[in-house]
Design goal:
By secondary structure, the chain is an alpha/beta fold. About 40% of the residues lie in helices and about 20% in strands. The longest helix has 26 residues, at about 160-185.
Length: about 190
Amino acid sequence: MPYYEVRLSGSGGQGMMLAGTFLAEAAGVYDGHHIVLAKSYGPEARGGACRSEVIISSTPIVYPEVQSPDLVLAMTQEASDKYHKDIKPGGIMIIDPEFVKRKPSGPIIIYEIPVTRIARETTGYEITANVVALGSITALVDWVSRGAMMKAILDRTPEGTEELNEKAFAAGFEVGKAAHGKKLAEKVP
């Protein structure tokens, strides 16, 4: 595994900071890779722009800042507009179509995954959208394992919410797997 940069972005209250922590722990603690985690909040506590960034590498990380992400999750239109230009050519952008109405363009692969709606329908709580998103990301990439991601999530979630988070993750994983399969089928002549 060479080197991957990830940016999880949205607004305060959507769980992007916690999602970044889950991803970093899954890749670093449980899958054994080198990681860097950085978090950035807007001036507002809830509703302001925020992002967490994770670098995952099989070798020590020399520069600890995301420059050209391999994957961006955009949970708001503002995040999509701001960060789609940074994605490396051929990189992945996941957008939540409930909040991102103008799809970005460029030499990137875009997945429209309604993580907020899936969270609401699967668990009854929009707050689990970040876990749905992580399930989708895990299905779309090969640089974090499903077992490590689930362990990281369950180790940090409040007692009594394990089943809820397992459901959210599984729903996201299945949607991500289906979306990935669809994109692969579209590429076949």
